[in-house]
Amino acid sequence: MTDKTVSIVLVHGGFVDGSGWQGVHEVLTNNGYEVIVAQNPTLSLADDVAVTRRAIAAAKHPVVLVGHSYGGVVITEAGNDPKVASLAYIAAFAPDAGESVETLIANPPPGAAVPPILPPQDGFLMLDKAKFAGSFAADVDPSTARFMADSQVPWGVEALAGKVTAPAWKSKPSFYLVASDDHMIPPPAQRAMAERAGAQVTETSGSHAIYVSKPAEIARLIEQAAEQSVEVA
């Protein structure tokens, strides 16, 4: 198998780390892609963008920059790097200039599921462990969902408030996978953000943790973005 001429950088969201990308990583590396998984501290948007930019710099080829959930905010800012060829949003926030997670979740649509976020402690947020599986990972096998709940990464309130300055989706091709059974980011909100970004949209049934439960589907979207990036180049 020949090596591909596009690199993939995977950016995780809040409450989790990069290990959730393992299945996607396996599919893409087996198909010849260089894959780099950013391990963001999720303390502030600026810190996470800096870590992601270092991952981009380490890549051998032009980059498809992939973000899940809050990782979508990170790639929207970091994606302005000239090495980034395209963006792929996986059940992710895709903010416009001046927007943050905080502003995007301020007015949920009527009837939308309410994520079980506990009150902040020392400037950090966690999900209620007892409700984690149902809200975040309903289609993940129970033992993995339980581990994800117990290994949560505290999410900094400052990261939620981090505002995007120049959205990369305004100048880079974008792809968006809507998780139609998501109980963290309402699917109608995902569709609206994808449309605003002018993204090519794929919709798949799955929970917020669709990148864990359906790695083959996620990898397929990323490969589509990579193939189109090669055509553009």
Automatic annotation (TrEMBL):
SUPFAM superfamilies: alpha/beta-Hydrolases. One of its GO terms (molecular function) is hydrolase activity. Signal peptide: none annotated. InterPro entries: AB_hydrolase_1, AB_hydrolase_fold, Sec-Metab_Biosynth_Hydrolase. Keywords: Hydrolase. The keyword Hydrolase applies. Residues 8-220 form the AB hydrolase-1 domain. It comes from the Bacteria. This is Alpha/beta hydrolase. It comes from Sphingomonas telluris.
